[in-house]
Amino acid sequence: MLGNHLLGLYEKALPPELTWEERLRAVTELGFDYLEISIDEKDERLARLDWTQTERGVLHRAMRETGVPIQSMCLSGHRRFPYGSADPAVRARAHEITEKAVLFQYGEGSAALPEEITVLREVTGDADYKNRKLAALQKL
Questions:
Q1: Cβ contacts of residue 104 below 8 Å, gap of 6+?
Q2: What secondary structure does DSSP assign to 55-103, as a single string?
Q3: Tens of pLDDT along 53-71?
Q4: What are the residues whose beta carbons fall under 8 Å from the beta carbon of 26, sequence distance 6 or more?
Q5: Closest by alpha carbon to 103, among 89, 115, 88?
Q6: 69/8 Cα distance (integer angstroms)
Q7: Helices and strands (DSSP H and E) totals, the chain
Q8: CA trace torsion 12, 14, 16, 22 (10° rounding)
Q9: Is the pLDDT of residue 127 over 50?
Q10: How far apart are alpha carbons 56 and 122 in whole angstroms?
């Protein structure tokens, strides 16, 4: 902690071969308060958004046993699947990644969809929303 501020350690600052428990223990040993998980453009990191309950359970168990939370997520998978792509399939994948990332944070089995998902759907409507909205505003 730095004053009143919690300090997080970015997951990629640690060796990738560490288990979740080893990573979380390292957070404390290095003087940090929490770990920031990475969901980048690599298939193995994007796949985390589709983890089974068992796979999520390994992470949750490690957090309980170490007392170290994962308080933030670096969601950089959109570098590979950008919302601004000309390809509607890529834009749809970007939207899917965003929804899954929000649900990942809440965990499966939540009684209702988190407000963030409702807002995402209301604001974007469909995968073409932003591009149509931008096109209407721009004059070429």
A1: 39, 48, 49, 51, 73
A2: HHHHHHHHHHHHT--EEEEEE-GGGTS-TT-S-HHHHHHHHHHHHHHHH
A3: 899 899 999 999 999 999 9
A4: 9, 14, 18
A5: 115
A6: 10
A7: 6, 3
A8: -130
A9: no
A10: 29
